[in-house]
Amino acid sequence: MTLLPLVHDGLLVGAILFALGLVGILARRNLIVMFLCAELMLQGIAVSLVAWSRQHGDWGGQMLVIFVLTVAACEAAIALVIVLQAFARTGRLDAAAWQSLRESNLPRVIDHGLPAPDTVAPRFPRLTPAGVLPEQDEDEVLHREHV
Amino acid sequence: MSLATTFPPPGLLLAGAVAAAAASLWLLLPGNALGGDRRIRSIGAALGVAALAGLALSGRRLGGLGEEGVFLVVSGVAIVSAAATIVSRSPVYAAIWFALALAGVAGVLLVLGAQFLGVATIVVYAGAILVMFLFVLMLAQPAGLAPYDRVSNEPLLSALAGAVLLGLLTVSIGRLSGEPPACCQVPSRTTAVAGGTTDAAPAAADPGDPFATDHVARLGAELFGRHLLAVEAAGVLLLVALVGSIAMVSRGASVEDASADGRAPA
């Protein structure tokens, strides 16, 4: 079998997206970010399936992607409810908050030496003032009903 | 035509690119052993750019300059935003980067000839699923950056696992495409496709043509012809998910209300 050049590159992109999603799901602790990484892996799968559809010249891959999209939507709805319920119980979106579910012979995860948060505050764009400030009538301000 | 005859050999180039990607992810992930100051992060970003260049060089040359340029741009957007998604400290920024990654993926799908799926990805993911994510984040995010967003589980081992997986996948993709020389013809459609289609889908339907004007019509004919039963099953699945999520939310709320009132949950 000879792959089309475009199909080869598409499969490469799909593999990279899948691997990135795997790294994220292994490394991150935030439940929602882990879930985003799972969606990233699904995107990699979708790209690979469409590439195979192109290679074979039939609709099978694209049909599969449509159903992958459907299942991903259902999965997102259910999983976000579970995440919300977990947050309601622990007050944290931390996967390690549920570590009492671990195997009994595994050590407990304890965070030592947390890195300090970034001290540099994010800089947001600021609107430039336009026009002049209108003069305020003192009486009118005092007698205004809703301030 | 690949770079097989040039220096560096493609295997070495690919291995270097994958290793650079793993090192870059390790340096960029929050809470690695080296600390995450600005200098370390810029080294990681530089390594990531090198890895991206290596991977781009190990790809096949596409036909025209336009197609190749478009593919490089959209796949670069997708990959860079995906990497930024997994290394962002703030989950809100991660979600925004994920939206950009979706835009890149939609572009890749368009280039690969799946017009409908490219648009559907934007509509379904960026329009619906991502907004749901952001709603949950706004509902559940504590003020400021949480401590668990500043650490990772084993960043070095995770990056290594990703590198091993990527290496295996790229090697097998290279094997697939490298066996017989040249002859870049689409293999003719198998008889299974032509034999199984209903009369609504013409036998000459080639989904690979990205400029076909009746792409969506033919996709719809295929979807509601051969895969009608699967469409019904998907509809049932969506309904079950809808009912299930509503039931779980309301049940959790009633349990909390009951325990707050000091009553046993119903």
In terms of topology, how is this protein built?
The complex is a heterodimer of chains A (147) and B (266).
Chain A: H1 5-27, H2 31-56, H3 60-90, H4 138-142
Chain B: H1 10-28, H2 38-58, H3 65-87, H4 91-111, H5 115-140, H6 155-178, H7 191-196, H8 215-225, H9 228-261
Q: How would you describe what is shown here?
A:
The complex is a heterodimer of chains A (147) and B (266). Chain A is built from four helices and no strands. Chain A is mainly alpha-helical. Chain A has a domain at 5-92: Orthogonal Bundle (Helix Hairpins), CATH 1.10.287.3510. By secondary structure, chain B is an all-alpha fold. Chain B has two domains: 10-178, NADH-ubiquinone/plastoquinone oxidoreductase chain 6, subunit NuoJ (Four Helix Bundle (Hemerythrin (Met), subunit A), Up-down Bundle); 191-261, no CATH class. Helices cover 70% and strands 0% of the residues of chain B. Chain B contains nine helices and no strands. Chain B has helices at 10-28, 38-58, 65-87, 91-111, 115-140, 155-178, 191-196, 215-225, 228-261. Chain B starts with 9 loop residues before the first helix and ends in a 5-residue tail after the last helix. The interface between A and B is large, with 83 and 113 residues.
List the main descriptive attributes of the protein structure presented here.
heterodimer, A: 147 residues, Helix Hairpins, 0% strand, B: 266 residues, mainly alpha, 9 helices, flat
Brief synopsis:
The complex is a heterodimer of chains A (147) and B (266). Chain A has 147 residues and is mostly helical. Chain A has helices at 5-27, 31-56, 60-90, 138-142.
Largest pleated sheet of chain A: none
- What is the H/E order of chain A? HHHH
Radius of gyration of chain A: 26 Å
The secondary structure category of chain A is: mainly alpha
Q: What Rg of chain B do the Cα atoms give?
A: 24 Å
How many β-strand runs of chain A? 0
Amino- and carboxy-terminal Cα gap of chain B = 69 Å
Distance between the termini of chain A: 75 Å
Low-confidence segments of chain B:
180-205, 262-266
Give the rounded overall mean pLDDT of chain A.
85
